[in-house]
Amino acid sequence: xxxxxxxxxxxxxxxxxxxxxxxxxxxxxxxxxxxxxxxxxxxxxxxxxxxxxxxxxxxxxxxxxxxxxxxxxxxxxxxxxxxxxxxxxxxxxxxxxxxxxxxxxxxxxxxxxxxxxxxxxxxxxxxxxxxxxxxxxxxxxxxxxxxxxxxxxxxxxxxxxxxxxxxxxxxxxxxxxxxxxxxxxxxxxxxxxxxxxxxxxxxxxxxxxxxxxxxxxxxxxxxxxxxxxxxxxxxxxxxxxxxxxxxxxxxxxxxxxxxxxxxxxxxxxxxxxxxxxxxxxxxxxxxxxxxxxxxxxxxxxxxxxxxxxxxxxxxxxxxxxxxxxxxxxxxxxxxxxxxxxxxxxxxxxxxxxxxxxxxxxxxxxxxxxxxxxxxxxxxxxxxxxxxxxxxxxxxxxxxxxxxxxxxxxxxxxxxxxxxxxxxxxxxxxxxxxxxxxxxxxxxxxxxxxxxxxxxxxxxxxxxxxxxxxxxxxxxxx
Length: 477
Ligand code: URA
What we know:
The chain is α/β, with parallel strands linked by helices and 477 residues long. It has helices at 12-24, 60-69, 77-89, 102-124, 155-165, 204-216, 224-230, 233-236, 245-265, 273-280, 287-296, 327-332, 339-351, 383-400, 409-417, 423-426, 443-448, 453-476, and strands spanning 2-5, 32-35, 128-131, 142-147, 171-175, 178-182, 187-190, 318-322, 359-362, 369-372, 375-378, 404-408, 428-432, 435-440. The protein folds into three domains: 2-121, no CATH class; 124-243, no CATH class; 272-476, Uracil-DNA Glycosylase, subunit E (3-Layer(aba) Sandwich). Strand 10 and strand 11 form a beta hairpin. Helix 6 (204-216) packs antiparallel against helix 14, helix 10 runs parallel beside helix 14 (383-400) and helix 13 (339-351) crosses helix 18. The structure holds uracil. The site of uracil has 13 residues, from helix 13.
């Protein structure tokens, strides 16, 4: 009997090394006992495996299966994988296609369990902000810590996901089977940890998650049994948004009715659900991170030079949402710098709102146009396009958390309210779910009016709206 001792957890390198030796010596799987570092060997010393055995060439899917299955907790995982590899090197190159084969069936179950665990950790791990005096470099000791209890040894396997997603933060992930530390430059893999004290305390980050969950919660799809299966109670303790679940389930029937009514009123356009779902898989932790995602994304309708991001202080009391960047905004990469922006600036000033104290953004982040010779003529976004970008807008607002969201024109009102709004008839205060809102006209509507008394009155009304909006904010202050 040959004893192979590997490190505790998922020892992929150790397993590969051992495998080379075992294959080189043509050792039968039944003649090998595998153990993790914590399990003492009962077999005394056996002859060491050759250290210089050549790599075992394996089909790519077999390699991928090995990487996954070594993360499983099953103590037999290495023995099963050894059996698999031995059959492959003996000629069964397409062995993974034989789903009814008991070995393949069992390995497929292990693989599925690991993948499911990875998905849970990606989806349900939540960072909490803690003060860390050791990290005083540039963010006043800001560090994010998360506690998670995976079912399998997946901590290292999840590292690339979290590094990519939260590259700009200093964070630590603690689990009972290992830990990860990221300092914005390098990753350190550490030992198992105990659940840290005090992580349950509410913080801004947790609140952000709760708001996000509430705003993306679809009451029409409420199925408490399925919710529990997808988001098992085990994870609830770590999920700030879980606090919102009971109330949302209670209010679901009323919200479904409201959605049906809104849907009936909204224009019918193509359904961009796939793209929305792809975006929703991205979970930025900061506005800067969200902006990176927006900047990296392709325009839904090709042609735009760049994504135009929101601009203004992150703690602005008032957010102003326009339709989409125009020609000049597209060139400069800043919102409201063209003719409509200049008119808006003038009106804001007259209304007593400082532009630099407000957060200005757009419902749609890319310029959509038709080319006419050298000119690029603005085209309004469709409802489907507005829906596509809505996820970003909602995330953006969740980070800024303004006291009032002012929508300019019908597109912004549609993005915030989820229904078509008749701006001239409904202008004024309007609730937008999580946000107190205020509907008014778009400055480009004013620019299109023929010069004369009507246009001047429309401008005065616009300024009066902005003044009222300011008063709402000051009243709420
Ligand atoms: N119109 C908008 O709606 N937004 C801009 O940024 C510019 C013009």
